[in-house]
Design a protein that fits this description.
alpha+beta; Ubiquitin-like (UB roll); L-amino peptidase D-ALA esterase/amidase; 398 residues; 2 domains; nine-stranded mixed sheet
């Protein structure tokens, strides 16, 4: 698997850019546009939060009407266009229509996404100005980095990645940008992630691959246990390459593995850039009786505030991990349980062993291995610590 530069413009036939339109009073970039030179099949996964933002509702309508004719994505940051009623839905549709008009594209060919403050109407005159700037700039400032910057909120780093597959005369590329730093505890998606590929693949196979890839990447991360109303993952496949996926065969697996690698890169970037994060922790549960039980234990530990603050303080209060495991709702035999932190055993065969030093908590990357010794199923989650800065950032976020 070969990493290449370029992000969402690495695949053939894609352009992207980002601009500052004035939605953010800071003057930072707040709009992005990704454009394909030909119609694309689209894969999409959205938040399962019942309060879905207006752009999700509108994008779902567009995908239903034109699943293989999508030409691009327009997105804004600084305003989530969520809990904004019928006016918010009209504004999301207007974003699409204005973009299609400026680009001279047919109806239902542009998808829309938003992120930022919940409960405020979009300033549509500013949004239209931003769209006009995006259309003017995309040919002269074709940049995945600018697009990635245009969707940032509390992110401190641009998130982008891209890969290339080559075998004989066949090749394809896949790239992505993403954003996310807080409100990370997804179920079917996470924050915003836009993926482009020049592989030829049907709408049905693309969506099947996306759902599988999301389950093993974005659905395995948490920062604060809160699920956003705007979580969206789009994949656009324009078929410009020589690599074609026709069925679930070896080529499908090759495409799937590249898609997983792409999403995993963005997922880990989101965790590492979590609001106020100083530690990244992998909670790995093995030998559970059922997979859902392994997941329950992993997520309970991952979202425990006491475990998170222990990690931040580098305080070897290991009982917090054991208490979280025991409160997961899973029937666990303490005499079979084994728990390790960075390969140091702290609990085994019903005995709390502990470890008095805090040196194993000094590293930024920490692993908590939980062996239930009850079956053959496993599950892992990436999580973070909880710092003073997390509270400060979210207390002051307006």
């Amino acid at each position: 698997m070969n990493k290449v530069s370029g992000g969402v413009i690495a695949p053939r036939g894609f352009k992207a850019t980002g601009v500052a339109s004035g939605i953010k009073i800071s003057g930072k970039k707040d709009m992005a546009l990704i454009l394909s030179d030909k119609p694309c099949a689209v894969g999409a996964v959205f938040t399962t939060n019942i309060f879905k933002a207006a752009p999700i509702i509108v994008s779902q309508e567009i995908i239903k009407a034109n699943p293989t004719g999508i030409r691009g994505i327009v997105a804004n940051s600084g305003n989530a266009n969520c809990l904004t009623g019928e006016e918010g839905i009209r504004n999301a549709r207007t974003m699409v229509e204005i973009t299609e008009k400026y680009l001279n594209l047919p109806n239902n060919s542009i998808l829309v996404a938003s992120t930022g403050i919940i409960g405020k109407q979009l300033p549509m005159s500013i949004v239209e100005y931003g769209i006009s700037k995006l259309v003017q700039r995309i040919s002269v400032e074709n940049s995945s980095s600018l697009a990635a910057e245009g969707i940032m909120t509390t992110d401190t780093k641009i998130k982008q990645t891209s890969y290339q597959y080559i075998s004989g005369l066949e090749s394809f590329r896949i790239g992505a940008i993403g954003k996310g730093s807080g409100m990370i505890n997804p179920s079917m998606a996470t924050m915003l992630c836009f993926v482009t590929t020049d592989a030829k693949i049907s709408y049905e196979l693309l969506n099947e691959a996306l759902r599988e890839a999301v389950e093993e990447t974005f659905n395995r991360i948490t920062v604060d246990g809160d699920m956003s109303t705007n979580d969206t993952v789009f994949v656009l496949a324009n078929g410009n390459s020589s690599f074609e996926v026709k069925e679930k065969d070896e080529k499908y697996q090759i495409f799937l593995e590249h898609l997983k690698a792409t999403l995993n890169d963005i997922a880990l970037m989101i965790v590492e850039d979590g609001e106020g994060v100083t530690k990244v922790v992998k909670i790995n549960v093995i030998n559970a009786k059922k997979q859902e039980e392994a997941e329950k234990v992993a997520r309970r530990v991952a979202n425990s505030l006491l475990v998170k603050t222990m990690l931040f303080g580098e305080n070897p209060n290991w009982g917090r991990i054991i208490a979280a495991i025991g409160s997961s709702g899973v029937s666990i035999n303490p005499s079979k349980l084994q728990v390790k932190v960075n390969n140091v055993t702290i609990f085994e065969e019903g005995n709390f062993i502990g470890y008095e030093k805090n040196d194993i908590l000094k590293d930024k990357m920490i692993t908590i291995d939980i062996n239930l010794n009850a079956g053959k199923f496993s599950y892992f989650v990436y999580s973070t610590d909880l710092s003073y800065d997390y509270v400060k950032i979210n207390a002051e976020y307006t």
